[in-house]
Specification:
alpha/beta, Rossmann fold, Alpha-Beta Plaits, 2 domains, eight-stranded mixed sheet, four-stranded antiparallel sheet, 9 helices, binds the ligand O=P(O)(O)OC[C@H]1O[C@H](O[C@H]2O[C@H](CO)[C@@H](O)[C@H](O)[C@H]2O)[C@H](O)[C@@H](O)[C@@H]1O, magnesium
Length: about 270
């Protein structure tokens, strides 16, 4: 019997392929769709991945990009109108072509700006890159020596805490955000409540993607989803939870492309 069983990936994706009209495909972008690049502006979503997403967005109930990037950049990277976009780790979404920041986060705008400016002054001269993101702050240390990277993390942790912000560490980046209940998990919940899929999957590679994984599980426990799937993208840099909490582990963006091909093979 074992020999005739379809491979694990195929079995796990069966429900999605059989019933695309009730199925949601939710995905992170950097490190999941787009290979990690030395700098944020050098990242690209491969052409084949975009074509697959385009086909999927026409067939499935929902395809959404839920990114740590600013929403406009998430939109630009995927480049498809048929996809729904959330940016800044769930603090923003694209509504009718306009970016909406969640209202609870607005009172923290100045503090995030303050942190960004301090980081630019203190860490910029050491080679760190401070991305301009408005409602969250990201200090990139991929291209600096290890000790400078540690200094970036310490600095953002210390100053972020002083300003009352929440700090997370990702792949070559330390980020600060308003301490309100918004993350990739709240974005997943909002989409499930709006589109009412029977099943939803999320694909991700980094720290803030774990919020989406955990929310999917809660949604299934609450009965809002019949089925869910957490696709973890393994990498040397990613947090261990991405593999430990995933139902399906794939290797890098090539593994993600395989999942998309499988979902698109109808
Ligand atoms: O949630 P995501 O869509 O994965 O966004 C997470 C962060 O991605 C970007 O930074 C990462 O990708 C860069 C390009 O490959 C890389 O140079 C950097 O080291 C990574 O951390 C983006 O620039 C950040 O704003 C996102 O938060």
């Amino acid at each position: 019997m074992g020999a005739d069983r379809p491979p694990r990936k195929e079995r796990l994706l069966h429900g999605w392929r059989e019933d695309p009209g009730s199925s949601a495909i939710l995905t992170d972008i950097d490190g999941t769709l787009a290979p990690i690049a030395p700098t944020p502006d050098a990242a690209r979503v491969p052409g084949e991945t975009r074509e697959l997403l385009e086909r999927l967005s026409r067939r499935y109930l929902l395809v959404a990009g839920i990114s740590g990037r600013k929403t406009e950049e998430a939109r630009e990277l995927i480049g498809l109108d048929g996809v729904v976009y959330f940016g800044n780790h769930g603090f923003e979404k694209l509504v009718d072509g306009r970016v909406e920041i969640i209202p609870e986060a607005r009172p923290y705008l100045e503090r995030v700006q303050e942190l960004e400016e301090m980081a630019r002054r203190e860490l910029g001269p050491l080679g760190a890159f401070v991305e301009e993101k408005v409602i969250t702050a990201s200090v990139h240390y991929r291209n600096v020596p290890r000790e400078v990277g540690e200094r970036c993390v310490d600095f953002v942790r210390r100053e972020g805490e002083r300003l009352g912000l929440r700090v997370t560490v990702g792949r070559g980046v330390v980020e600060a955000r308003p301490p309100v209940r918004a993350d990739k998990g709240t974005a997943v919940r909002a989409l499930v409540e709006e589109y009412r899929p029977r099943r939803a999957l999320f694909m991700g590679d980094d720290t803030t993607d774990l919020d989406a994984f955990r929310e999917l599980e809660r949604l299934r426990e609450e009965g809002l989803l019949e089925e869910m799937l957490r696709v973890g993208v393994a990498s040397e840099e990613g947090p261990p939870g991405i593999v430990a909490e995933a139902d399906l582990v794939v290797e890098g963006v090539e593994g993600v492309a395989d999942v998309l091909r499988e979902l698109a093979s109808f």
